[in-house]
Design brief:
The complex is a heterodimer of chains A (424) and B (96). Chain A is α+β, with helices and mostly antiparallel strands. Chain A is 34% helix and 23% strand. Chain A contains eleven helices and 20 strands. In chain A, the strands form five sheets. In chain A, strands 1, 8, 9, 10, 11, 12 and 13 form a seven-stranded antiparallel beta sheet that branches. In chain A, strands 16-15-18-19-20 form a five-stranded parallel beta sheet, sandwiched between helices. In chain A, helix 6 (235-245) runs antiparallel to helix 8, helix 7 (274-286) packs across helix 11 (401-421) and helix 8 (303-315) runs parallel beside helix 9. Helices cover 33% and strands 19% of the residues of chain B. Chain B has four helices and five strands. Chain B is globular, with a radius of gyration of 15 Å. Classes of the chains: A alpha+beta (424), B alpha+beta (96). Chains A and B meet through helix 6, helix 8, helix 9 and helix 10 of A and helix 3 and helix 4 of B. Bound molecules: iron/sulfur cluster (SF4). The site of iron/sulfur cluster (SF4) has 13 residues of chain B, from helix 1.
């Protein structure tokens, strides 16, 4: 899912006519001060990061003056929450809150539903997980006709909204459901939305996640990569995205996994398929190695796509090894992988002589693939050759994560020791 | 030099080296792993029997011809596969 930060989500809500507090984002204390002056009253300074529990992490502060806003921003902008640096703060008016509510629109994947679902609770402002089940009200929404006002009124009655407020709440929820549909959201969570002292309903927070597949329909969002990334977009993510963006011939997925390019113990990781990827992670975890990236070449991609992924994985600086992890019996013709890997290793190993490369391939056309690998890499794999740490495995080790992990670890240790001895 | 453009790659063949090639492994590999685009005409690989559009439509970018030529032929064939952004990535890290 393409995820928006709170301030971005609120901008889109405002554009769709949904009430949000007066505010704007800032990336420096000076900007924060200017924003607070523009608002002209007490403000909330909220760190913008894709992580929950911001209050507990100390990146939400309420202040009275613009110079306090500046100081709060300075404090928040140097923090890191769950490994993510806070690069922006949202400065917005402090609301006079009468009561807080929760609502979210999500996809109900249940077999008999498969449609959007509205969840609502009058216990807003806290983790929804900590709200008792009987206080959370749910309703499936017709995916074609959307939430109708009469259904919203019924729902609000069920949720205990007083009669005189029914039309206000029903209208608010209906408008939000229209936004959910208009922006092709996968999740739209407002926690809390608040009733102010003067009786208005306003979105005090916003978590908006857009369906990746719909990003092409929304150039207005300016989303560079329609993917679930663990952190900020890196150069490797951009390279990975360019491999996939306009080439639908099988999967050639590549993304960074928080790799810092300096620390030892990272492995260029190239599994084939999702299940295989999990087993490969087991193999690495069992021996204390870490994946520098997540890749996937499955769905019978063409050789050039496999080459692009493998070449990018092997190009990562300072990796201690490369794992081609075909831990499943693949239906796709494996000889395309074999041809691509031979080409890549001939090009890349001269730059990383002795790099451990554990190649596990099995499934359709395995015998031919093994022959391509063995023949194609034989000259590199001599005892003093640049491919002396290439090891090739087939079906005999198809689910043997322990063995593959241990081989990789042994080779990586050797390689690291050799590099240390050379002072590299 | 023969240049064949597929959707995202360029195949370059130094056909001067092909006359003495006994295996013509590129064409055999093309037939085995893909759709047999490469044919041997007068001792050299050729796609002249196809239009440029047909090459684009039928080409599967399997890379088999390069590997076959490298290990069984006369090392006449190379494939260029551009990767957007990789050069910049490597240059920034002093790895180019
Ligand atoms: S295998 Fe290589 S050298 Fe032989 S004909 Fe084909 S391209 Fe020419």
């Amino acid at each position: 899912m393409a995820k928006f930060l709170e301030y971005q989500g609120k901008e889109w809500l405002a554009k769709a006519g949904i009430p949000v507090p007066k505010g704007r984002s800032a990336s420096s204390p000076e900007e924060a001060q200017q924003a607070a002056e523009w608002i002209g009253k007490s403000v909330a300074v909220k760190g913008q990061v894709q992580a929950g529990g911001r209050g507990k992490a100390g990146i939400v502060k309420l202040v009275e003056t613009s110079s306090e806003a500046s100081a709060a921003a300075a404090e928040i902008l140097v923090k890191t929450v769950k490994g993510l640096p806070v690069r922006q703060v949202l400065i917005e008016e402090k609301l006079a809150i009468k009561k807080e509510y929760y609502c979210s629109f999500v996809i109900n994947n249940a077999r008999d539903a498969r449609c959007p679902m509205l969840m609502f609770s009058s216990e807003g402002g806290m983790d929804i997980e900590s709200v008792p089940e009987e206080l959370i009200f749910k309703m499936n929404i017709d995916p074609i006709f959307g939430l109708q006002i009469y259904d919203a009124i019924d729902f609000c009655v069920r949720a205990g909204i007083p009669n005189k407020e029914l039309s206000k709440f029903a209208s608010f929820l209906t408008k939000l459901s229209q936004v959910y549909k208009k922006y092709d959201c996968q999740t739209l969570e407002i926690n809390p939305f608040v009733m102010t002292e003067d009786g208005s309903l306003i979105c005090a927070d916003c978590k908006m996640e857009i369906d990746n597949s719909s990003v092409g329909r929304h150039p207005e969002f300016g989303i560079k990569i329609a993917r679930d990334l663990p952190g900020e977009v890196t150069e490797l993510d951009m390279i990975g995205w360019s491999i996939e963006e306009t080439d639908a011939r099988g999967t050639g997925f590549l993304m960074n996994m928080g790799y810092d390019e300096v620390s030892p113990g990272y492995i260029g990781y190239h599994p084939i398929g999702g299940g295989s990827a999990m087993m490969g992670l087991d193999a690495l975890n069992q021996v204390g190695l870490k994946p520098a990236n997540y890749a996937d070449t499955s769905g019978n991609p063409v050789g050039s796509k496999i080459y692009r992924v493998a070449k990018s994985v092997l190009s990562q600086p300072n990796i201690d090894g490369y794992l081609l992890g075909g831990f499943m019996m693949a239906n796709q013709e494996q000889w395309h992988h074999a041809n691509a890997i031979v080409k890549v290793l001939w090009e890349e190993l001269p730059k990383k002589p002795g790099l451990p490369c554990v190649l596990l391939l099995c499934g359709n056309r395995e015998d031919e693939s093994m022959e391509i690998l063995r023949k194609g890499l034989a000259e590199l794999m001599t005892s003093d050759g640049i491919g002396k740490r290439i090891e090739i495995y087939g079906k005999e080790h198809v689910t043997d994560t322990k063995f593959i992990g241990q081989r990789l670890l042994a080779l990586a240790k050797e390689y690291r020791a050799e590099k240390d001895a050379q002072g590299k | 030099m023969l240049e064949i453009k597929e959707k995202s790659i360029t195949i370059s063949i130094d056909t001067n080296k092909c006359d003495t090639c006994e295996t013509k492994a590129c064409a055999a590999a093309c037939k085995k792993y893909a759709r047999g685009l490469l044919q041997i005409v007068d001792g050299k690989p050729s796609v002249e029997h196809l239009s440029a559009e047909e090459v684009l439509r039928l080409g599967t970018e399997c890379l088999a011809c390069e590997i076959a030529c490298k290990f069984e032929g006369n090392k006449a064939l190379t494939i260029n596969i551009p990767i957007a952004g990789l050069d910049v990535y490597l240059t920034k890290r002093g790895l180019q």
